[in-house]
Design goal:
Elements lengths: L2 E6 L3 H11 L4 E7 L7 H4 L3 E2 L9 H23 L6 E2 L3 E5 L2 H16 L5 E3 L1 H7 L10 E5 L3 E3 L1 H14 L3 E4 L5 E5 L2 E6 L4 E3 L2 E4 L5 H5 L8 E12 L13 E4 L2 E7 L2 E9 L11 H14 L7 E13 L6 E4 L6 E5 L5 H17 L7
Parallel strand pairs: 1-2, 1-13, 2-9, 5-15, 13-20
Antiparallel strand pairs: 3-8, 4-8, 5-7, 6-7, 10-11, 11-12, 14-17, 14-18, 15-16, 16-17, 19-20
């Protein structure tokens, strides 16, 4: 029997869920969003997949990262084969570390990952200069390099997932009015908008901060807060482009530089937390501090042209770890897949696989 699945939210998480479920004949997929795809936190993300290099080593946090990093290479191949290639930087991620003690911790992480078949390398300043002569790493004791972590461009990735899901029969409706849940006996019967209604056997809420509006009248409250990230799109003069073809993503004290090719770069960080009133607006002074800190270890950016500056709010769960991934208590067919904070792109594949597994075996869903 075919099950009707409605997914609220067309960011990277909702798109990944739609894609994975669209591979199976037993699900009829509908994706709804009040905006266009990837307009929320996905559109503000840098798309860094810091899974192997992450300090997470156990529990759900590591399981989700491991599962995503196992899925990503094949997932990108599948999208390309379906005519939806995704731009990405496959040169790995270099995380610079200021203190020698951090390098020691990094070496222990390297040993742990190696035992599980993953690759990490500890680089001193000399090795960093050999591989990345365009960097200025004098403030760092060294770094840890992950060749299996990489970066994908979040908006093209999201749109590719949705496009192939639609090729597989999923229906997507964007720019709709605020959806309303029609619930009888703790079961969501359908989702209604001003335009239409959508009967469902399963409802997946993956709308980031928009999940608050969807769930505010339900019996279990969802607590998410916004954390603001800011970023720049830069282009350096051709004469200043690094001569080496090897240009990994570089991160230093949560400031990230993503080479895009053709002398273009993204620079960004999560920099602002909400005030006590709950409000949060971009502070251009903090954004400029991010850029100056990036220039300090990536000097060629000093003479770069700023093509674009943007900001976005990331959904951070209050009082629990990210993401919120569970059944909604008090209801038998509503699942939450939201609140991924800074790791929406990284954890999207693992989240989608988890939702798929739960729908195939509903008795395993944690409510």
């Amino acid at each position: 029997m075919v099950k009707r699945v409605v997914i609220l939210g067309a960011g990277v998480v909702g798109a990944a869920i739609a894609y994975e479920l669209s591979q199976l004949d037993q699900f009829k997929i509908t994706v709804l969003d009040t905006a266009q795809p990837a307009r929320g936190s996905t559109g503000a993300a840098l798309g860094m997949l810091m899974g192997i290099i992450s300090r997470k080593t156990k529990g759900r946090a590591w399981t989700l990262r491991r599962r995503s990093m196992e899925r990503f290479p094949r997932l990108l191949e599948e999208l390309a084969a379906a005519g939806q290639p995704v731009p990405h930087n496959s040169h790995g991620i270099l995380k610079l570390l200021r203190e020698p003690e951090e390098l020691e911790k990094g070496d222990r992480l390297r040993e742990l990952r190696q035992a599980s078949g993953w690759q990490l390398a500890i680089w001193d300043q000399e090795i960093i200069q050999q591989h990345c002569p365009h960097l200025q790493a004098k403030e760092a004791a060294g770094g840890i390099f992950s060749p299996q972590d990489f970066q994908v461009q979040p908006v093209p990735f999201t749109k590719a997932l949705l496009a192939v899901a639609q090729q597989n029969g999923a229906h997507c409706y964007f720019g709709i009015s605020q959806p309303k849940l029609e619930i009888t006996d703790q079961h969501c019967q359908k989702i209604s908008t001003d335009q239409n209604s959508y009967p469902c056997d399963w409802l997946i809420v993956s709308a980031g901060l928009g999940s608050l509006e969807v769930t505010k009248h339900l019996s279990e409250s969802l607590s998410l807060g916004p954390v603001l990230g800011q970023a720049f799109h830069l282009r350096v003069p051709k004469k200043l482009e690094p001569q080496t073809p090897f240009q990994p993503v570089v991160s230093f004290e949560d400031i990230h530089v993503v080479p895009l090719g053709q002398g273009e770069y993204w620079v960004g960080a999560t920099v602002e937390f909400p005030a006590e009133t709950g409000g949060i607006t971009p502070d251009i002074t903090l954004a400029d501090q991010v850029l100056q800190k990036a220039i300090a270890f990536y000097p060629l950016l000093k003479n770069a042209e700023i093509l674009r500056h943007w900001s976005g709010k990331r959904p951070r769960p209050n009082g629990q770890g990210a993401p919120v991934l569970k059944g909604l208590a008090g209801y038998d067919n509503i699942l939450l897949a939201t609140g991924h904070y800074r790791n929406g792109v990284l954890l999207a594949p693992a989240t989608a696989l988890t939702i798929r597994d739960w729908l195939l075996a509903p008795e395993t869903i944690p409510f």
